[in-house]
Structure formats: structure tokens, C-alpha cells
Amino acid sequence: MNNTVQKTHEILKLIAKNKDGLTLAQIVKALELPKSTVFNIVRSLVSLEMLRATEGPFPVYRLGIETFRIGLSYINGTSLDSAARPILSSLCHEINETVFMSIPSGKTELVYIMKYLSDSQYQTISSVGTVRPLLSIAMGKAMLSVMPDEEIIQTIPEEMFTECSVPSITDYDSLLEFIHCARRQGYVSENTAENPQFASPVAAPVLDMNSKLVGAISIVIMRDPNNPERIRELGRRVNAAALAISREMGYLKEDLFYAFRQ
């Protein structure tokens, strides 16, 4: 790979992970690159509107509008987008709860690509473009649920357990126990006895024609979030919606977890 292209990619990824932006010095320190190299690349990215910079002697750099346009073009050009939008829009309307969709971002993270809001006065703060570690939200665990156990262990670094949204998941054994439960019930639920919540997310994976993971969807239950019957009902709904999207993507099995039922 061209060296300049690789450095440019690293700079964009770094800035994308820092929503408050970074100064030139912070980028140089984080990537351990020569200041002159970073300056030239950043200046070019600003001129292309891939980055935007604040005024002043020490400008702070954030992603620019052109990165959003490119990302949006990618999303709009995929069959996943056209398959998921009508299903998620209808789901949100029918249950009046906020619905999300995400796709994998690298090996250990995901990025939100869709959000359909309920009319509740209470809302989650996550928005389209947010990047999160897999263990930090239900959708990430839903993605893990269709990986073989060995792949899960290889994917999740030990230090990520400190970011897990379910307190009882502290190591690989407890993670796999949680994942096995999710496979049996057909969805991930983060409402547990030791994790009382103001909102209860339920999530399920989305697969393609080759039974490969392409994303995950979630319902964030804000109305009566600790009602077990409501959690089960919306768990079934998120599974059905994920299966419907998967079928639009060419998935032929009757069960998202068919590979684990054998």
C-alpha cells in the first residue's frame, strides 16, 4: 500500500474516534509520525473538506462534510440499506420504540448507520456515525452471537471486558455463557438481574446469502423497560425484523442461529 495513503487513512481513523477533535500535536503524538508529514496530509484533507479546522494558532481538526458524503454514498449504494430501511421504519412505527442498526467497523468495533426515533420524551444519546466497542452495547454482542466460540475469543481482547455493558461479563467464560443464552432465545437482552436499567436494549444479528455477518439491529425499550413479558415480546420482534432483513439479503435459513442448532 502507498505509504502516504496509509498515513492518511490512519489520521482519518484517529480523528473519527475523537468526537471533540484533535490538534496537530495530538495527532503527531498518537501516531508517532513526523510533524511535517502530518501537517501536509492534514492541510490537504482540509482543502478537500475531508477535515475541518477551528480558527486560531492551534486548530482542532474534526471530520469534514466530504467524509460524510462519501460514507453516505457507500451506505446508499448497498443492498443492506435498501433492505433494512423499510423494515426498521415499520418496526419503529409499530412498537413506538427507538430502533438502531449498525455494521462492523474493524475487528472489535461497530458503527451506527441507522436510527429511527420513537416519540418518547426520553431518548438515547447515540447517533448515526457513533463508533462503539463490541462489548459496550447489545448490538455488538448480537454480532458476536453468530461467531464460533473460538472466533469470539480471538476477536475480543481481554482489556475490553472493562467496557462491557453487562457487569457480570468479566471474562471469556462469562461472555460465552451470555452468548449461548442469546443463541437459545434468539436475541440479546441486556436486562439482567444484576443490571437494572432505565432502558432495556434487545438486539439480533443480520446475515447475508452466505450466512456471513453484515450488521445488527436493536430496539431500545424505554416504555416499561423492566417488564419481562415486554422484553420477550420485543426480543421476538427484533429477531423477526433481523431475519426479514437477512432474507432480503439472500439468507435462506429459517433461523438466524441455524448453524448453532445442529
> Radius of gyration over alpha carbons?
20 Å
Number of helices, where a helix is a run of at least 4 consecutive DSSP H or I residues: 9
User: What would CATH call the architecture of the largest domain?
Assistant: 2-Layer Sandwich
Q: Briefly note the structural class of the backbone.
A: alpha+beta
Biggest β-sheet description:
6 strands, antiparallel
The SSE string, one letter per element, is: HEHHEEHHEEEHHHEEEH
Number of domains: 2
The top level CATH class name of the largest domain: Alpha Beta
Taking all residues together, what is the mean pLDDT?
88
Globally, the shape reads globular
Query: Which strands sit side by side, in order, in the main sheet?
Result: 6-5-4-9-8-7
Written overview of the protein:
It is a single chain. The longest helix has 21 residues. This protein is 43% helix and 18% strand. Strand 8 and strand 9 form a beta hairpin. It folds into two domains: 62 residues, Winged helix-like DNA-binding domain superfamily/Winged helix DNA-binding domain (Arc Repressor Mutant, subunit A); 183 residues, GAF domain (Beta-Lactamase, 2-Layer Sandwich), CATH 3.30.450. It has 262 residues and is α+β, with helices and mostly antiparallel strands.
